[in-house]
Amino acid sequence: MLTVSTVNVNGLRAAAKKGFTEWFAATSADVVACQEVRAEPSVLPAELRDPEGWHTVHAPCATKGRNGVSLYSRVEPDSVRVGFGEAEFEDSGRYVEMWLPGVVVASLYLPSGEVGTPRQEEKERFMAAFLPYLVALRDKAASDDREVLVCGDWNIAHAEIDLKNWKANRKNAGFLPEERAWLSRVFDEAGYVDVQRHLDPEGPGPYTWWSYRGKAFDNDAGWRIDYHVATPGLAQRCTSLVVERADSYEARWSDHAPVTATYEV
Q1: Catalytic annotation present for 153
Q2: Is 55 assigned a ligand-binding role in the annotation?
């Protein structure tokens, strides 16, 4: 069995002070993928920079205090890759992968975008470059008899069942028609599977992100933007997927919740 957790920590040092460290110490996951770490490895607490019993890779952003992705694995990887070969994003702290026995696991932090700004243009460039990489990764992994799991914050709600207030967000980044169509291409053209929807095609939710503003968390007015996206063979072997939603607003250590899935490998 392989258990993988993914979570956008919204600043790892801040999350560590609010409960992430305790969650990490207690997790039964074999691999933990983090996004929006926002810290150089040198300033992370030792128990998170290089925890005992884990093999760790951190991919910080060249711009301090932004982005950053990490992977922790209890099994030593055969190899590690930071970035996906696109020069603009190589040191942006948005993608890292580990080649483990039988599976490639990646941590992804796709740009969030903002309509009418350069941030949305950056998101569009990232998506345009990332889709062919996903195809190439699928093929390369298959030739090495491995499945692929790209988990993380994809920053797109794919369908109306993936966010509570979808009608009010039709013109907002994260639910734009062109973003949703791109994610459909990941599934239809690149051949990957949204593992949550494979297990639960009806929805709504479960949501993985809730704004800190207002009563979004208390009212479960969230978005499902944190995904396990797998090649079909691995998706078929998923036995469970759980969103580890905090018991209360006060118990949250991020505006996202961990998404944890177990696979038969």
Answers
A1: yes
A2: no
Q: Do residues 238 and 262 touch, judged by C-beta distance below 8 A? A: yes
Provide the token pair at 182.
């791109």
pLDDT tens, 109-125? 999 999 999 999 999 99
Q: Rg of the chain's alpha carbons, rounded to an integer?
A: 17
Q: Is 36 annotated as a binding residue?
A: yes
Residue in 109, 192, 207, 227 annotated catalytic: 109
Would the pLDDT of 265 be above 90? no
> Helix (H) and strand (E) counts for the chain?
7, 12
pTM, full prediction: 0.97
Burial 29-44 (b: 16+ CB within 10 A, else e): bbbbbbbbbbbebeeb
Distances (CA, A) of 2 to 32, 39, 133, 190, 240: 11, 28, 24, 24, 11
109 included as an active-site residue: yes
Q: Which pairing describes strands 69-73 and 259-263: parallel, antiparallel, or unpaired?
A: unpaired
List the catalytic residue out of 58, 158, 228, 256: 256
Q: Is 255 annotated as a binding residue?
A: yes
- Domains, the chain, in order of start with CATH, read 2-263 (3.60.10.10)
Which one from 30, 95, 153, 228 is the annotated catalytic residue?
153
